Amino acid sequence: MGFVSDNGNDKKSYISIKSKKTAIICIIVIIAASYGLFFYLQSSTEMDIRSNLFADQKQRQTESTKAISQHINSDLNLVLANLKILGNYGHVQSGDLSNINVKNLMQEIFPQISPIADRLYIMNQNGTIIMEKTQSGEQTHIGRNISKIAWISKSKADKVPTFSNGYVGLDGVYRIGVTYPIINRDTGQYIGLVGAAIPSIKFFSHYGNLYHVDFGFLAVYDNKRNYIATPRTHFIGKNFFGNQVQSFFHQNNIQNSLYHTVFSGKPSDAIYNFGTGERLNTGYPIFLNGKPTYFLFVVTPTSVIYTHVNDVLYTQRIETFSLLVGITVAIAALIIFLIKWNSNLYDEVMKRTSELHRANEQLDLNAKSQKDFINIAAHELRTPTQAIVGFAELAKSDGEYLDIDKRRGGFIDIIYRNSIRLHTLIKDILDITRIESNTLILAKDQFNISEVIRNCIKDISNQSDSINNNTIKILYNEPGDPLYVDADRVRLYQVISNLLTNAIKFTKKGTIIVTAEIKEIASSSQIVVSVKDTGAGIDSEIVPRLFTKFTSKSDSGTGLGLYISKSVVEAHGGKIWAENNADGIGATFTFTLPFGNKPHNVT
Question: Contacts from 89-96 at CB under 8 Å and sequence distance 24+?
Answer without folding.
Answer: 92/122, 92/182, 92/191, 92/194, 93/182, 93/184, 93/185, 93/191, 95/184, 95/191
